[in-house]
Amino acid sequence: METISIRAPSTSSSGTKARRSARTRLPAAVALLPTALVVLVVYIGCMLWTVRLSFTSSTLLPKLDWFGLTQYTRLFANDRFVTSAENIVIFGALFISGCLIIGFLMAVFIDQNVRGEGLFRTVFLYPYSMSFVVTGVAWQWFLNPGLGLQKLVRDMGFESFTFDWLVNQRMAIYTIVIAGLWHGSGLTMAIMLAGLRGVDKDLWKAAKVDGIPTWRVYTSVVLPLLRPMVVTATVLLATGVVKLYDLVVAMTLGGPGIATEVPAKFVMDHLFERNNIGLGTAAATIMLITVVIVLAPWVYTRYVRPQGRHT
Q: Per the record, which residues fall in region Disordered (predicted)?
Protein backbone atom coordinates (compact mmCIF):
# COMPACT_ATOMS: atom_id res chain seq x y z
CA MET A 1 0.00 0.00 0.00
CA GLU A 2 1.45 3.34 -1.12
CA THR A 3 1.79 6.12 1.39
CA ILE A 4 1.31 9.73 0.41
CA SER A 5 3.75 12.09 2.02
CA ILE A 6 2.96 15.77 2.32
CA ARG A 7 6.05 17.92 2.19
CA ALA A 8 5.88 21.09 4.24
CA PRO A 9 6.98 24.25 2.47
CA SER A 10 10.59 25.00 3.13
CA THR A 11 11.44 27.89 5.38
CA SER A 12 14.02 29.15 2.91
CA SER A 13 11.52 29.49 0.04
CA SER A 14 9.02 31.39 2.20
CA GLY A 15 11.81 33.67 3.44
CA THR A 16 12.87 34.34 -0.14
CA LYS A 17 9.31 35.29 -1.10
CA ALA A 18 9.08 37.63 1.91
CA ARG A 19 12.35 39.37 0.96
CA ARG A 20 11.22 39.65 -2.65
CA SER A 21 7.90 41.13 -1.56
CA ALA A 22 9.69 43.62 0.71
CA ARG A 23 11.95 44.71 -2.16
CA THR A 24 8.88 45.17 -4.34
CA ARG A 25 7.12 47.35 -1.76
CA LEU A 26 10.18 49.45 -0.96
CA PRO A 27 9.98 51.79 -4.04
CA ALA A 28 6.30 52.45 -3.37
CA ALA A 29 7.03 53.27 0.26
CA VAL A 30 9.83 55.65 -0.74
CA ALA A 31 7.57 57.35 -3.30
CA LEU A 32 4.85 57.84 -0.69
CA LEU A 33 7.23 59.15 1.97
CA PRO A 34 7.03 62.86 0.93
CA THR A 35 3.24 62.70 0.95
CA ALA A 36 3.24 61.08 4.37
CA LEU A 37 5.58 63.80 5.70
CA VAL A 38 3.32 66.51 4.28
CA VAL A 39 0.30 64.94 5.94
CA LEU A 40 2.09 64.63 9.28
CA VAL A 41 3.73 68.05 9.29
CA VAL A 42 1.28 70.27 7.43
CA TYR A 43 -2.10 68.78 8.27
CA ILE A 44 -1.73 66.98 11.60
CA GLY A 45 0.99 69.34 12.81
CA CYS A 46 -1.05 72.43 12.02
CA MET A 47 -4.13 70.96 13.69
CA LEU A 48 -2.18 70.24 16.87
CA TRP A 49 -0.62 73.71 16.74
CA THR A 50 -4.08 75.28 16.39
CA VAL A 51 -5.37 73.33 19.38
CA ARG A 52 -2.31 74.37 21.40
CA LEU A 53 -2.83 78.08 20.58
CA SER A 54 -6.46 77.85 21.72
CA PHE A 55 -5.14 77.41 25.29
CA THR A 56 -3.01 80.55 25.14
CA SER A 57 -3.63 84.30 25.41
CA SER A 58 -2.37 84.94 21.86
CA THR A 59 -3.60 88.15 20.25
CA LEU A 60 -1.73 89.64 17.28
CA LEU A 61 1.14 87.15 17.51
CA PRO A 62 1.22 83.58 18.87
CA LYS A 63 2.27 83.02 22.47
CA LEU A 64 3.17 79.81 24.22
CA ASP A 65 1.79 80.65 27.66
CA TRP A 66 -0.94 78.61 29.33
CA PHE A 67 -4.32 80.33 29.49
CA GLY A 68 -6.41 77.28 30.36
CA LEU A 69 -10.02 77.18 29.20
CA THR A 70 -10.44 80.94 29.32
CA GLN A 71 -10.71 81.30 25.55
CA TYR A 72 -13.43 78.65 25.42
CA THR A 73 -15.31 80.38 28.24
CA ARG A 74 -15.14 83.65 26.32
CA LEU A 75 -16.12 81.87 23.12
CA PHE A 76 -19.39 80.44 24.41
CA ALA A 77 -20.19 83.76 26.11
CA ASN A 78 -19.74 85.59 22.79
CA ASP A 79 -23.11 86.44 21.22
CA ARG A 80 -21.61 86.46 17.76
CA PHE A 81 -20.31 82.91 18.10
CA VAL A 82 -23.57 81.69 19.63
CA THR A 83 -25.46 83.22 16.71
CA SER A 84 -23.05 81.60 14.25
CA ALA A 85 -23.58 78.22 15.93
CA GLU A 86 -27.36 78.61 15.72
CA ASN A 87 -27.09 79.60 12.05
CA ILE A 88 -24.92 76.62 11.16
CA VAL A 89 -27.39 74.27 12.85
CA ILE A 90 -30.30 75.79 10.89
CA PHE A 91 -28.35 75.73 7.64
CA GLY A 92 -27.03 72.21 8.21
CA ALA A 93 -30.41 70.67 9.04
CA LEU A 94 -32.20 72.27 6.09
CA PHE A 95 -29.30 71.90 3.66
CA ILE A 96 -28.59 68.22 4.31
CA SER A 97 -32.23 67.11 4.46
CA GLY A 98 -33.17 69.27 1.46
CA CYS A 99 -30.27 68.02 -0.68
CA LEU A 100 -31.05 64.39 0.17
CA ILE A 101 -34.75 64.77 -0.72
CA ILE A 102 -34.30 66.89 -3.84
CA GLY A 103 -31.33 64.85 -5.05
CA PHE A 104 -33.22 61.59 -4.56
CA LEU A 105 -36.26 62.91 -6.45
CA MET A 106 -34.06 64.10 -9.32
CA ALA A 107 -32.33 60.72 -9.42
CA VAL A 108 -35.70 58.93 -9.52
CA PHE A 109 -36.79 61.20 -12.36
CA ILE A 110 -33.68 60.47 -14.43
CA ASP A 111 -33.89 56.75 -13.64
CA GLN A 112 -37.18 56.53 -15.58
CA ASN A 113 -35.22 56.38 -18.87
CA VAL A 114 -36.44 59.83 -19.89
CA ARG A 115 -35.46 61.34 -23.21
CA GLY A 116 -32.43 63.57 -23.04
CA GLU A 117 -31.12 61.85 -19.92
CA GLY A 118 -27.60 63.13 -20.54
CA LEU A 119 -28.88 66.70 -20.82
CA PHE A 120 -30.82 66.46 -17.56
CA ARG A 121 -27.84 64.97 -15.75
CA THR A 122 -25.65 67.82 -16.98
CA VAL A 123 -28.17 70.49 -16.02
CA PHE A 124 -28.74 69.05 -12.54
CA LEU A 125 -25.03 68.55 -11.84
CA TYR A 126 -23.84 71.81 -13.40
CA PRO A 127 -24.33 74.02 -10.27
CA TYR A 128 -22.01 71.76 -8.29
CA SER A 129 -19.23 72.41 -10.79
CA MET A 130 -19.20 76.09 -9.83
CA SER A 131 -17.52 77.45 -6.74
CA PHE A 132 -19.51 78.70 -3.77
CA VAL A 133 -18.29 82.22 -4.56
CA VAL A 134 -19.86 82.18 -8.02
CA THR A 135 -23.02 80.61 -6.60
CA GLY A 136 -23.21 83.26 -3.88
CA VAL A 137 -22.75 86.17 -6.26
CA ALA A 138 -25.37 84.80 -8.67
CA TRP A 139 -27.95 84.32 -5.92
CA GLN A 140 -27.12 87.70 -4.39
CA TRP A 141 -28.06 89.34 -7.67
CA PHE A 142 -31.18 87.21 -8.07
CA LEU A 143 -32.47 87.80 -4.52
CA ASN A 144 -31.50 91.46 -4.28
CA PRO A 145 -34.81 93.37 -3.82
CA GLY A 146 -33.64 96.19 -6.07
CA LEU A 147 -32.20 94.04 -8.85
CA GLY A 148 -33.58 90.52 -8.92
CA LEU A 149 -36.76 88.58 -8.35
CA GLN A 150 -38.71 91.26 -6.48
CA LYS A 151 -37.96 93.93 -9.07
CA LEU A 152 -38.74 91.55 -11.94
CA VAL A 153 -42.16 90.63 -10.56
CA ARG A 154 -43.00 94.24 -9.74
CA ASP A 155 -42.03 95.31 -13.26
CA MET A 156 -44.55 92.76 -14.52
CA GLY A 157 -47.31 94.70 -12.76
CA PHE A 158 -47.43 93.04 -9.32
CA GLU A 159 -46.27 96.08 -7.38
CA SER A 160 -47.26 94.67 -3.99
CA PHE A 161 -45.01 91.62 -4.37
CA THR A 162 -42.27 91.51 -1.75
CA PHE A 163 -39.37 89.12 -1.41
CA ASP A 164 -36.75 90.83 0.72
CA TRP A 165 -35.31 87.83 2.56
CA LEU A 166 -31.76 88.84 1.67
CA VAL A 167 -32.01 92.04 3.75
CA ASN A 168 -34.36 90.64 6.41
CA GLN A 169 -32.52 89.62 9.58
CA ARG A 170 -34.96 86.85 10.42
CA MET A 171 -35.03 85.34 6.92
CA ALA A 172 -31.52 86.02 5.57
CA ILE A 173 -30.13 82.65 6.69
CA TYR A 174 -32.77 80.91 4.57
CA THR A 175 -31.45 82.62 1.44
CA ILE A 176 -28.12 80.93 2.17
CA VAL A 177 -30.01 77.63 2.43
CA ILE A 178 -31.70 78.22 -0.96
CA ALA A 179 -28.36 78.90 -2.66
CA GLY A 180 -26.80 75.88 -0.94
CA LEU A 181 -29.60 73.57 -2.08
CA TRP A 182 -29.21 74.78 -5.66
CA HIS A 183 -25.48 74.08 -5.45
CA GLY A 184 -25.42 70.74 -3.62
CA SER A 185 -28.48 68.82 -4.81
CA GLY A 186 -26.75 67.75 -8.01
CA LEU A 187 -24.04 65.91 -6.09
CA THR A 188 -26.66 63.96 -4.15
CA MET A 189 -28.48 63.22 -7.41
CA ALA A 190 -25.34 61.70 -8.94
CA ILE A 191 -24.69 59.50 -5.88
CA MET A 192 -28.31 58.36 -5.63
CA LEU A 193 -28.55 57.69 -9.37
CA ALA A 194 -25.53 55.40 -9.19
CA GLY A 195 -27.30 53.47 -6.44
CA LEU A 196 -30.60 53.29 -8.30
CA ARG A 197 -28.88 51.87 -11.36
CA GLY A 198 -27.60 49.04 -9.17
CA VAL A 199 -31.05 47.96 -7.94
CA ASP A 200 -32.03 44.55 -9.32
CA LYS A 201 -34.75 44.84 -11.98
CA ASP A 202 -36.36 41.66 -10.68
CA LEU A 203 -37.43 43.58 -7.57
CA TRP A 204 -39.52 45.90 -9.72
CA LYS A 205 -41.01 42.99 -11.63
CA ALA A 206 -41.97 41.22 -8.40
CA ALA A 207 -43.48 44.45 -7.02
CA LYS A 208 -45.61 44.88 -10.14
CA VAL A 209 -46.82 41.29 -9.94
CA ASP A 210 -47.80 41.79 -6.28
CA GLY A 211 -49.49 45.10 -7.09
CA ILE A 212 -47.34 47.13 -4.67
CA PRO A 213 -47.56 50.89 -5.30
CA THR A 214 -44.42 52.47 -6.75
CA TRP A 215 -43.98 54.91 -3.86
CA ARG A 216 -44.10 52.01 -1.40
CA VAL A 217 -41.37 50.17 -3.29
CA TYR A 218 -39.14 53.24 -3.13
CA THR A 219 -39.70 53.84 0.59
CA SER A 220 -39.66 50.21 1.79
CA VAL A 221 -37.29 48.49 -0.64
CA VAL A 222 -35.16 50.92 -2.63
CA LEU A 223 -34.22 53.39 0.10
CA PRO A 224 -32.90 50.68 2.46
CA LEU A 225 -30.76 49.39 -0.41
CA LEU A 226 -29.41 52.91 -0.94
CA ARG A 227 -28.28 53.29 2.66
CA PRO A 228 -24.52 53.37 1.79
CA MET A 229 -25.19 56.11 -0.77
CA VAL A 230 -27.28 58.07 1.72
CA VAL A 231 -24.52 57.83 4.33
CA THR A 232 -21.85 58.90 1.83
CA ALA A 233 -23.90 61.86 0.62
CA THR A 234 -24.69 62.90 4.20
CA VAL A 235 -21.02 62.86 5.21
CA LEU A 236 -19.98 64.90 2.16
CA LEU A 237 -22.74 67.44 2.75
CA ALA A 238 -22.04 67.63 6.49
CA THR A 239 -18.35 68.40 6.02
CA GLY A 240 -19.37 71.15 3.59
CA VAL A 241 -21.70 72.57 6.23
CA VAL A 242 -19.00 72.79 8.90
CA LYS A 243 -16.59 74.71 6.65
CA LEU A 244 -19.26 76.99 5.15
CA TYR A 245 -17.62 80.36 4.53
CA ASP A 246 -17.34 81.58 0.95
CA LEU A 247 -21.05 81.28 0.16
CA VAL A 248 -21.91 83.52 3.13
CA VAL A 249 -19.19 86.05 2.30
CA ALA A 250 -20.27 86.23 -1.35
CA MET A 251 -23.97 86.66 -0.53
CA THR A 252 -24.26 88.65 2.69
CA LEU A 253 -20.83 89.15 4.35
CA GLY A 254 -22.48 87.73 7.45
CA GLY A 255 -25.22 90.38 7.48
CA PRO A 256 -27.53 92.05 7.84
CA GLY A 257 -25.82 92.63 11.16
CA ILE A 258 -24.70 89.14 12.22
CA ALA A 259 -27.85 87.41 10.94
CA THR A 260 -25.91 85.04 8.67
CA GLU A 261 -22.71 84.73 10.68
CA VAL A 262 -21.19 81.23 10.60
CA PRO A 263 -18.32 79.69 12.63
CA ALA A 264 -15.82 79.69 9.75
CA LYS A 265 -16.33 83.41 9.20
CA PHE A 266 -16.01 83.99 12.94
CA VAL A 267 -12.64 82.21 12.87
CA MET A 268 -11.33 84.10 9.84
CA ASP A 269 -12.40 87.47 11.20
CA HIS A 270 -10.73 86.91 14.58
CA LEU A 271 -7.52 85.53 13.07
CA PHE A 272 -6.96 88.16 10.37
CA GLU A 273 -9.06 91.22 11.25
CA ARG A 274 -9.60 91.35 15.01
CA ASN A 275 -6.11 90.09 15.90
CA ASN A 276 -7.37 87.60 18.46
CA ILE A 277 -5.56 84.36 17.64
CA GLY A 278 -6.50 82.68 20.90
CA LEU A 279 -10.25 83.13 20.46
CA GLY A 280 -10.09 82.32 16.74
CA THR A 281 -8.19 79.07 17.28
CA ALA A 282 -10.60 78.11 20.05
CA ALA A 283 -13.47 78.44 17.56
CA ALA A 284 -11.43 76.49 14.99
CA THR A 285 -10.88 73.71 17.54
CA ILE A 286 -14.62 73.49 18.14
CA MET A 287 -15.08 73.15 14.36
CA LEU A 288 -12.45 70.39 14.30
CA ILE A 289 -14.26 68.50 17.05
CA THR A 290 -17.50 68.86 15.10
CA VAL A 291 -15.90 67.40 11.96
CA VAL A 292 -14.53 64.46 13.96
CA ILE A 293 -17.97 63.81 15.44
CA VAL A 294 -19.49 63.88 11.94
CA LEU A 295 -16.87 61.58 10.41
CA ALA A 296 -16.58 59.09 13.27
CA PRO A 297 -19.82 57.13 12.52
CA TRP A 298 -18.96 56.96 8.82
CA VAL A 299 -15.41 55.73 9.50
CA TYR A 300 -16.75 53.15 11.93
CA THR A 301 -19.39 51.77 9.53
CA ARG A 302 -17.04 51.88 6.55
CA TYR A 303 -13.81 50.48 7.98
CA VAL A 304 -14.05 49.31 11.61
CA ARG A 305 -17.28 47.29 11.59
CA PRO A 306 -16.49 45.31 8.38
CA GLN A 307 -13.14 44.21 9.88
CA GLY A 308 -14.91 43.15 13.04
CA ARG A 309 -17.29 40.96 11.03
CA HIS A 310 -14.42 39.22 9.22
CA THR A 311 -12.65 38.43 12.47
A: 1-20
Considering only CA atoms, which of 84, 85, 49, 81 is closest in space to residue 260?
84
CA dihedral 107, 111, 115, 117 (to 10 degrees): 50
Q: How many domains does the chain have?
A: 2
Distance of CA 197 to the CA centre of its chain: 24
Which of 35-49, 100-114, 294-308: highest mean pLDDT?
Answer: 100-114
To 5 degrees, how large is the angle CA 245–CA 246–CA 249? Answer: 90
CATH of the domain at 117: 1.10.3720.10
Write the CB contacts of 301 (distance below 8 Å, at least 6 apart in sequence). 231
CA gap 185, 179 in Å, rounded: 10
Report the alpha-carbon distance of residue 215 to residue 107 in Å, rounded: 14
- Of 86, 53, 55, nearest to 73 by C-alpha is 55
Q: What is the percentage of the chain residues whose pLDDT exceeds 70? A: 90
SS3 306: helix
pLDDT single digits (tens) 131-175: 889 999 999 999 998 888 899 999 998 889 999 999 999 999 999
3-state helix, strand, coil in the chain (%, to 5): 75, 0, 25
SS3 for 273?
coil
If asked whether residues 70 and 126 sit together in one domain, one would say no
List, in order, residues 6 or more apart from 161 with CB less than 8 Å away. Answer: 150, 153, 154
